[in-house]
Design a protein that fits this description.
814 residues, mainly alpha, 78% helix
C-alpha cells in the first residue's frame, strides 16, 4: 500500500513540476502582474513593486507592467522613480498620451525645462483638446515667453493661469506656473503664500517642502529655515534627507555643536541599520578629528547588531588616512573569518573599490564578478561593472545592468548618472539628458549632479534651462561657490550682465580667498564683455597693484595680458614675479611662456630645459618644450624631447598626442592609431582622442573590424555641433552605407572647415555616391585647389580620377 502511494505521490509531484516547467516566460510574467494588481487593490504597494520587478526580469518591455509600475511610483509620491518608468514606457510606445502628459507635468514641477518642452510638445500634439494638454500648452507658452524674455507675454500667461487655477485647483502645473511667476516678480511673500496653499492641498509632497525651504533661504529667514527643517524631520521620519539637510544647515551656520547634538539624537550605534551612525562617525572625522571618530567607532562595535559594517567603515577610514595595505588586509580578514560575514558581498565591493584606487583592477573585477554571480541585482556591483562596460564602449550591456540597478534603487544618483553616460556614449543625447535631469531630481538638487547637468545645458547654449537648474540648487545652498561661478558664467554667456553682477556680489559677500579670486576673474570678464578689453585689464591692474594682492591675482593679470597680446607687459610682469619668488617653478614656466610670446623662443627653450633637468617629472614642461622646439623647426630635437618625455611617463596624453601627429604626418598611420588607442584606453571619455581614432580608422582602414570599431567610437557624435566630429560621424556613417544620414553632417563640416581638403573630399564622395555629379565635381575641385603638390595622401589622386570620370559621363536627362 505505502509503496504504491509513494509512487503516486512522486508521479503527482513530477507532473506538477513538468507542468510548471512548461509555463512560458510570458505566462509567468502575467502571473506576477496579476499578483501585483491584487496587492495594489489590497494597498500593499511595496510587495506589488517586487512582483512588478519580477515581471521585468522575465519581460523587460512588458507595457502593462511598466504602466502599472509608473503609476505605482506616482501613488507612492516617488516622482523620480515614476519619471524613469514613464521614460521607459514612451521609449516603447512613443505615442502614449498619458505617459507623455505625466512626463511633461513632472518635468515642469522639477523645473527641468528642456525635458518639459520635449514631452509637452508631444503631449499637446497627441491630445490637443484634453484639459491637461491645454494647461500644459499654457505652461509651454509661458516657458517660450521666458526664453524670449517677453515680459508682457509672460504677465498675460500668469494672469491666465490665475484664472484657470480657480477652476483647476488641483493642477500642479498651474500652481507651479504661479509660484514661478511670483518668484520672478520678486513677490516673495506672495510666492510663500502660494507654496503654503500647495502644501495644504498636498501635505505629503516632499518637493513642495523643499521649495519652501529654498524660498526661506532666499528670504534669509534662518530661524524659519531651522523650524522648517525640524518640521520636515518629523513629517518624513523615514527619510534621512531632511536630517542630513538640518546637519548641513548647522554646519554652514558654524553651529557645529548643535549639528553634533542633533546627530547624536538620531544616530543610535545599536540600531539595526547603522547608516546614520556611520554618518556621525564621518561627521566627527571631518568636523572634530580622526581620533574622536575612531574612538566612537571602536566603542560602538560592542553594541552594534551589525559589527561587520562598522569594521568595514573602520577599514575605510584607515584607507582614507593612507594605510592602504592594512585596510585591505583587514577587509580580507573579515571575509576570511571562521563565521561567514552577514554582508560578504558588501565587503567584497568595498574591497574592490580599494583595489581600484591602488591600481589592482584585475582583482577588483574578479570580486565584482563573484558578487554578481551570487546576487545578480546587487546595486553597487552592477554600477561598478557598468562603469567598466561604458569605458569599453559596451553600452548595451551597461544599460542592461543599470536598468537592473535602477529597478531596485530608482533614486540612486550614481546609477542615473552612469545611465546618462552610457546613453551619451551610445549617441542618444535625449536619453542621456533625461537621466542627467533625473539624477538632479533624485539628489534633491545636490551640487555635483546639478553642475554636471547645467554644464551640458550651457554648452548647448540652453542658458535659461541651465539658470533654472542652478538656481534650484542654490536655494538649498546659497553659498556654494561652484554653483555661483557656473551661474555667473551662464549670465555672461547670455549677456545678462545685471544678473552676472549680482552673482559677483554674492561671491564677494562669502568672503573666502577662493570666492574673492573667482569674483575678481568674473568681474574682469564682465567688464571685458560690457565695456571692452581695456577696462577689464585696468581692473586687474588695479587689483594687482594693491599691497595685499595675492599671487593668484598677479597670475590672473599676467595670463590676461598674454591672451590679449600685451606680451611685453606680460614679460615685464613675469620677470618681476620671478625676482620676488625665484624658487617658484610655476612662475619660471610662465616666464618661459612670456618669452615665447615675445618671440624669444631660444630663451624660453633654455628656461624649460632647466626645469626638466631639475625635475624630469614635470610633464607639462616637456610638452611645452616640444612645442617651442617645433616652432623653431628643431624637428629632430623635438622628436628626441618626445622620446625623453615618454621614457619618464609612457602614458602621458599630450606627448602621445604629439607623437601621433608626427606619425600621421610621416604617413605611419598604424603607429598614429596605436597612440590614439593608448590614449583612448586610459580615458575612453576623451572626445578628441575618440574623434581622431575613429577618423583614422574610417579613413585609412578597409577591414570590417576597423569599420565597426570606428562606428562604436564615433556614434557618440550623433548630436555634436563640433565640425571635426561632424565630419568623423558623417564619414563613418558613409563608410557603413548610410548615405542619407551622412550627408547633413558632412555638409555642415565642409562649410565650417573650408580649408581642410580631407573634409571636402568626404563630402565629394557622398555627392558622388548619391549621383549628384555636379556637386561632386565642384567639391573635388574645391579640394584639389587646397592640394600641395608634394602631399602624398591618396585622397588627392582619388579626387582627380573621380572628377575626370564624372566629367566624361553623359549628361543626365531631365
Amino acid at each position: 500500500m505505502w509503496p504504491l502511494l509513494a509512487r503516486n505521490f512522486v508521479l503527482a509531484i513530477s507532473l506538477c513540476l513538468s507542468l510548471a516547467a512548461c509555463d512560458t516566460a510570458e505566462e509567468r510574467a502575467e502571473k506576477y502582474l496579476a499578483s501585483a494588481l491584487e496587492l495594489i487593490d489590497q494597498g500593499d504597494l511595496d510587495r506589488a513593486a517586487i512582483e512588478l520587478r519580477n515581471v521585468f526580469e522575465l519581460m523587460a518591455n512588458h507595457v502593462e507592467a511598466r504602466e502599472t509600475m509608473a503609476q505605482l511610483m506616482l501613488d507612492k509620491n516617488d516622482k523620480s522613480a515614476a519619471y524613469g518608468h514613464y521614460l521607459r514606457l514612451v521609449e516603447q510606445v512613443p505615442d502614449h498620451v498619458e505617459g507623455r502628459t505625466i512626463l511633461a507635468e513632472i518635468a515642469f514641477e522639477a523645473r527641468n525645462w528642456q525635458e518639459f518642452v520635449r514631452h509637452a510638445a508631444q503631449a499637446v500634439a497627441l491630445a490637443p483638446d484634453a484639459p491637461r494638454s491645454q494647461i500644459i500648452d499654457l505652461a509651454l507658452r509661458y516657458q517660450e515667453a521666458l526664453e524670449a524674455r517677453d515680459g508682457p507675454a509672460r504677465d498675460a500667461l500668469r494672469d491666465k493661469a490665475e484664472r484657470l487655477a480657480t477652476d483647476n485647483p488641483d493642477s500642479d502645473v498651474l500652481q507651479q506656473v504661479l509660484f514661478d511667476a511670483y518668484m520672478r516678480d520678486r513677490k516673495l511673500d506672495r510666492a510663500l503664500g502660494q507654496l503654503d496653499r500647495m502644501i495644504a492641498s498636498k501635505p505629503d509632497n516632499r518637493t513642495l517642502y523643499t521649495q519652501r525651504l529654498g524660498l526661506l533661504n532666499e528670504l534669509q529667514d534662518y530661524a524659519a529655515v531651522e523650524d522648517q527643517l525640524r518640521n520636515m524631520v518629523a513629517l518624513f521620519a523615514d527619510d534621512d534627507g531632511p536630517k542630513q539637510d538640518l546637519i548641513r544647515f548647522y554646519v554652514r551656520r558654524n553651529q557645529v555643536n548643535k549639528a553634533e547634538a542633533f546627530f547624536r539624537e538620531i544616530a543610535d550605534p545599536a540600531a539595526e541599520d547603522p547608516a546614520l551612525f556611520i554618518g556621525l562617525v564621518r561627521f566627527l572625522r571631518d568636523m572634530r578629528d580622526p581620533e574622536t571618530a575612531h574612538a566612537e567607532l571602536i566603542a560602538a562595535l560592542a553594541v552594534s547588531p551589525q559589527p561587520d559594517k562598522l569594521k568595514m567603515l573602520l577599514a575605510m577610514l584607515e584607507f582614507e588616512a593612507g594605510a592602504h595595505d592594512k585596510a585591505i588586509a583587514d577587509l580580507q580578514a573579515l571575509l576570511d573569518q571562521a563565521t561567514p560575514s552577514a554582508q560578504p558581498n558588501d565587503i567584497k565591493i568595498t574591497l574592490a573599490q580599494m583595489m581600484i584606487q591602488t591600481g589592482n583592477v584585475v582583482d577588483a573585477k574578479r570580486l565584482v564578478d563573484e558578487v554578481l554571480e551570487s546576487d545578480s541585482r546587487h546595486v553597487e556591483g552592477l554600477k561598478m561593472r557598468a562603469t567598466w562596460l561604458i569605458g569599453n564602449d559596451a553600452t548595451d550591456a551597461a544599460i542592461a545592468d543599470l536598468r537592473l540597478a535602477l529597478d531596485k534603487a530608482p533614486n540612486d544618483v550614481a546609477a542615473l548618472t552612469l545611465m546618462s553616460e552610457a546613453y551619451a556614449r551610445a549617441g542618444n543625447r535625449d536619453l542621456s539628458w533625461d537621466f542627467l535631469a533625473l539624477a538632479v531630481d533624485a539628489s534633491n538638487n545636490a551640487p555635483a549632479p546639478t553642475l554636471r547637468y547645467a554644464r551640458v545645458l550651457a554648452a548647448d547654449e540652453r542658458y535659461l534651462a541651465a539658470e533654472e537648474v542652478l538656481i534650484a540648487a542654490l536655494r538649498r545652498d546659497r553659498s556654494n561657490a561652484d554653483l555661483l561661478v557656473l551661474l555667473g558664467e551662464v549670465y555672461l554667456a547670455s549677456e545678462d550682465y545685471s544678473r552676472a553682477d549680482q552673482v559677483i556680489k554674492r561671491l564677494r559677500s562669502i568672503g573666502t580667498e577662493r570666492t574673492l579670486v573667482v569674483a575678481n576673474a568674473l568681474q574682469a570678464r564682465l567688464l571685458g564683455s560690457r565695456e571692452g578689453l581695456e577696462q577689464a585689464l585696468g581692473f586687474l591692474e588695479e587689483l594687482a597693484t594693491r599691497e595685499d594682492s595675492a599671487l593668484n591675482t598677479q597670475m590672473t593679470l599676467l595670463r590676461a595680458r598674454l591672451s590679449s597680446d600685451q606680451t611685453e607687459k606680460a614679460l615685464e610682469q613675469a620677470k618681476e614675479l620671478v625676482a620676488k619668488h625665484p624658487e617658484n617653478p610655476s612662475l619660471q614656466f610662465i616666464l618661459a611662456t612670456s618669452h615665447a610670446a615675445n618671440g624669444n623662443l631660444d630663451v624660453a627653450e633654455t628656461l624649460l630645459s632647466t626645469l626638466v633637468q631639475e625635475d624630469p617629472n614635470r610633464m607639462r614642461v616637456w610638452s611645452q618644450l616640444y612645442r617651442f622646439q617645433r616652432l623653431q623647426q628643431k624637428d629632430a630635437k623635438a622628436s628626441q624631447t618626445l622620446r625623453d618625455g615618454l621614457a619618464i611617463d609612457p602614458d602621458n596624453r599630450d606627448l602621445l598626442w604629439f607623437q601621433a601627429a608626427e606619425f600621421e604626418a610621416s604617413g605611419d598611420i598604424d603607429s598614429a592609431i596605436t597612440n590614439y588607442e593608448r590614449i583612448y584606453e586610459r580615458n575612453s571619455g576623451d572626445l578628441i582622442a575618440a574623434n581622431n581614432l575613429a577618423s583614422l580608422l574610417a579613413t585609412h582602414k578597409t577591414d570590417e573590424d576597423s569599420f565597426e570599431r570606428a562606428w562604436i567610437v564615433a556614434r557618440r557624435f550623433r548630436d555634436t555641433n563640433v565640425p571635426a566630429m561632424q565630419d568623423t560621424y558623417g564619414w563613418v556613417a558613409f563608410r557603413r552605407g548610410n548615405l542619407e544620414e551622412s550627408l547633413p553632417y558632412l555638409e555642415l563640416a565642409a562649410s565650417a572647415l573650408p580649408s581642410d581638403p580631407i573634409v571636402q573630399f568626404h563630402l565629394g564622395q557622398v555627392y558622388g555616391a548619391l549621383d549628384r555629379r555636379a556637386d561632386a565635381i565642384a567639391q573635388y575641385q574645391q579640394m584639389l585647389e587646397l592640394a600641395d603638390d608634394n602631399d602624398p595622401r591618396p585622397q588627392f589622386k582619388i579626387a582627380r580620377d573621380e572628377a575626370a570620370r564624372l566629367e566624361q559621363l553623359p549628361a543626365l536627362s531631365d
